[in-house]
Amino acid sequence: MEKLIVIDSYSLIYKAFYAIKEMRTSTQIPTNAIYGFINMLLKIIKEQNPTYLYAAFDPKTPTFRHEASEAYKATRQKMPDELREQIAYIIEIIDYLGIQSAVCEGFEADDLLGSYAKLAKDTGIECVLITGDKDSFQLAEDGITIFYAKRGISDIVKVDEGYIKEKYQMSPKQLIDLKALMGDKSDNISGIAGIGEKTAQKLIIEYHDLDGIYENIESIQGKLKEKLLSGKEDAYHSRFLAEISDSAPIEKELVRYEGLTQEEELADLLTRLEMKSILSRLDIQVKECASLPADEENYCYVLLDAKNIHDSIERIEKEERLFVYYEIFYNKLSVLAVKTAETTFILDDCTQEICETFMQALEKNAIKLVLHDYKTFILNTLEYIDIEKIAFDIYLAAYVINPSDNSYCMNALLKKYLHMDVDINKNNTQLTFLSQNKRSHDELCMYVHSVEKLYHLFAGQIKDIEAEKLYYDIEMPLARVLASIEHEGMHIDVDELRDIGKTLDEQIMHLEDEIRELGGKDKSFNINSPKQLGALLFEELGIPVRKKTKTGYSTDIEVLESLRNFHPIIDKIIQIRKASKLSSTYVKGLLSLVDSNTSKIHTTFNQTITTTGRISSSEPNLQNIPIKTPEGKLLRKVFTAQDKNHILIDADYSQIELRVLADMSGDQSLIRSFLDNEDIHRRTAAEVFNVPLEMVTNSMRSRAKAVNFGIIYGISDFGLAKNLMISRKEAKRYIEIYLQRYADVQNYMDDMILFARKHGYVETKFKRRRYIPKINDRNYNERSFAERTALNTPIQGTAADIIKIAMNSVYEELIKQKLKSKLILQVHDELIVHAPIEESDIASQILKEKMQSAAKLKVPLKVDICAGFSWYDCK
């Protein structure tokens, strides 16, 4: 049967852009969206074998929906410049690949999907729609299947009528009426005020559609009836906006997909974009394009099969070291090569039954393994094995040797350390699901031989910089701990999260009304338009202009903060910005990442991103969950124990960086304050303001706190003045008095800068090294920044090392005592354990003891412990 495939291009391009870390060519052309989208296209072509292949795009001009509603999609953020720069290349590549581009004035890409789906149905052709947007679910019916990129672009869900019936308890067409009632914030479709998803779903299931609801309106009682009656016009208008059209003026005669049409042009473009892997995947030969370097020796390898598997296992069991190269595709092990002293064993199809047998053999010999990216290997082989310890990870070794490198992916290491001319994917992990490009057996041998070469090189360098303890005792065990935390996940109260979202939406609506009233504007005024907002603030209201950009007045948060006292509208705008950020980034962001089967989120911890050694997280970024605002604190209510029989135990280091400063500087005044268990900020205030401790006011303490942390981060008088909203002169005086009172802190700072100037690097207490290349720069600004970096890195880095040691110790002790309690989160100086209630006392004791004994300093490490059903209850 003939098959028509239509791609919702922009939705997938956006998915690729945000799913893949920044990639740039040597000439600084951004390429992550190009790389991701083109890989998706090639995968679609290979797996779907389309008869007809179309890529649908939105037009640049307004559509019929924009003409019907000025508010439609008015709150959408503009396309990032880094993405916009890639669109023209993508369109060019689509053309060279022989894919038909489709765009119709007045109609969105969704309407093209609907129109092509109708054409396919009318002509008896199978139709597949590929999208990253749930709006297309309404198009599912017999003969029309939707492939939906759910999370990033690796989690693909096949959506048909059965899927929608199971998930929503309604038909695809009823989803239109669902949106008509509940609205859609992302498209700025209002729906009916006060009606959420659950109520809307219940109404549709009971009355079938919008017409059915209003035909039976008298059977509905109370406030719900009032909402429905007052919002009837909004509901039908929202329905009009939500329904995908199937009448776009498309060509009725479909163009057959004949494959690559302009090979030479495509080769030239991909060469300019430095995408050798895609050229290789397309089997395009390019003149003067360096291919993957071949080793001078002849590779000796064995392809594993059922006949030789047991002999191969016997041979690897006799080895002292096993070098491993692997590739991951769609979160599954795809290819595996294991090198011994004499040969390489290759498993080039990990779907074979022998894969499990061979993997179990590797588990038994895990302490011999040398590979790249231990954490990724653990997480993607859990269906076979669970490895607790390996010999060496070249990925982590490269990070310890130089934490300032941009990438530690395999090809980046080959290029930097082995001088091999390879295409660099800027993703730091071993491979992404996009990187499926079947290697030749010689290439696999080359990679696994390179793992061995890098191992010998890095092991020596780690010894040379005296970082063995940091690497073997801290970073290597931590990879296993982080893998465990990622796999375990953290439970989310989805209903609570949705309630917070509703509260924020109501707050945003109220603030919008207040802003319009203060500015004398009606509902046509778009608060999210920088142009309209700038004109209102700086032209109509006469507020002083702080900064202008190429496009007009700047209304960024820094500008708004500086204008708070000029007009009450400014504070409202700041409030709505914060509420909108919470709603879009955290409420909607978290909802999109929750596993529907377990109600858990599984963040990804990044062990090699920061130069100071701190751990970061992504998808979602749990390190950035706000805690200073009441609304931000409420978000912690959604992070809960899995049920009432469990509890969260939160352990937080108290002022760890200041304690590290006291230890590293050896300042006796600071040390004495911590030994006497004084309020360090109050003590600093007493010293700086020269008053008795009992006379320190809250205002003095607050300023002293800013000075304390400012010293850690190498703050200037300008920065402190800005933070405290005081004069630069006064800020300078605070810093000078502080450094006079704490003379050894000043000596420490002087010594650290001198050390950096002499050696070109600084170190933490645990020998984590960071290079400071511009410490002797002639440019004052460059040199000053380097000096601040030299001051704060040893303190921040040592604190990061301590929390890592604590994580390893807590994890090991929980296992040693055979507890069911699990370490499930690390955020800055805070660890959270999920424990059965009956284990809460012992788990709390383990947390406190292991964290407080993680390092021996001149001052005690102090840990505050609290527990509760939710993260919010723990604070």
Question: Could you walk me through the main structural features you see in this protein, from its secondary elements to its overall organization?
Answer:
This protein has 875 residues and is α/β, with parallel strands linked by helices. Among the domains are: 3-172, 5'-nuclease (Rossmann fold, 3-Layer(aba) Sandwich); 301-464, 2-Layer Sandwich (Nucleotidyltransferase, domain 5); 494-598, Taq DNA Polymerase, Chain T, domain 4 (Up-down Bundle); 659-794, 5' to 3' exonuclease, C-terminal subdomain (DNA polymerase, domain 1, Orthogonal Bundle), CATH 1.10.150. The strands form seven sheets. It has a six-stranded mixed beta sheet, sandwiched between helices. The chain has a six-stranded mixed beta sheet with strand order 7-10-9-8-11-12. A hairpin with a 2-residue loop joins strand 8 and strand 9 (332-339). Helix 7 crosses helix 11 (232-242), helix 30 packs across helix 31 and helix 33 crosses helix 34 (840-852). The model is unreliable at 286-296 and 424-438 (pLDDT under 50).
Q: What's the arrangement of secondary structure elements?
A:
Blueprint: E1 3-8, H1 9-19, H2 32-48, E2 52-56, H3 64-68, H4 81-96, E3 100-102, H5 109-122, E4 126-131, E5 144-151, E6 155-159, H6 161-168, H7 174-182, H8 197-207, H9 210-215, H10 222-230, H11 232-242, H12 263-272, H13 276-281, E7 301-303, H14 309-317, E8 322-329, E9 332-339, E10 344-347, H15 354-364, E11 369-371, H16 374-379, E12 392-393, H17 394-401, H18 410-417, H19 441-464, H20 468-488, E13 490-492, H21 494-519, H22 530-540, E14 548-549, E15 552-553, H23 557-562, H24 568-593, E16 600-601, E17 604-606, E18 616-618, H25 630-635, E19 639-640, E20 646-653, H26 656-665, H27 668-675, H28 680-689, H29 698-712, H30 717-724, H31 728-741, H32 743-759, E21 761-763, E22 769-771, H33 780-816, E23 822-827, E24 830-836, H34 840-852, E25 863-868
Parallel strand pairs: 1-2, 1-4, 2-3, 4-5, 7-10, 8-11, 11-12
Antiparallel strand pairs: 5-6, 8-9, 9-10, 13-16, 13-19, 14-15, 17-18, 20-24, 20-25, 21-22, 23-24
